[in-house]
């Protein structure tokens, strides 16, 4: 069965010393987090090498990149290829975060290319999906999320899809202090799992990890994670403090 996963998206925060120190604290204190919990962090891009160098040989923490370009190489000033990230030793990549979609215009088709590139280099794609407030208020959130999955993810054969982690992030709850209720989170996670079952099969659906993201913190993580289809969280602000992040990871 699927394992609980807690992933920290540090976004454009921390300097190098702070990033290395935070990673070291998480790594040192992760011993009291149950073995069946996967831990991941997504630091700022320019600190990936520093964290990968600092990571101990026996570390349980996966390190991921917040962004990459799907091309193998070429005239893409300021970008990094998935091949370059793989050579560094990166384990995972974020794809489809709402901030990349909104601020950088990443389309469904472009995200599909990124999914393919990540899979081709054996990196774990953490695929983000979720609706803005106006869509939620219209009651059209399921159709909105279904389109995101169908146009960027559901082209994969079952063997490749099995490598994907899905993160549901209601955009109206990201960095706003608002959080979906446990019932709202469970409803969408259950819906996503039903789509996976229809597209692929029951055993694939049962094994697919679906995370919740959107102002998840130590005070609300336990009730969110208590839902049967919520397999952990993609954590933003609360991942910038080791104790907060680890408290969330300890929640069941």
Automatic annotation (TrEMBL):
Main location (coarse class): cytoplasm
Keyword Heme attributed: no
Compartment(s): Cytoplasm
Transmembrane segments: none
UniProt pathway: Carbohydrate degradation; glycolysis; D-glyceraldehyde 3-phosphate from glycerone phosphate: step 1/1; Carbohydrate biosynthesis; gluconeogenesis
SUPFAM superfamilies: Triosephosphate isomerase (TIM)
Annotated residues for binding of substrate: 9-11, 175, 215, 236-237
Family: Belongs to the triosephosphate isomerase family.
Name by which UniProt lists this protein: Triosephosphate isomerase
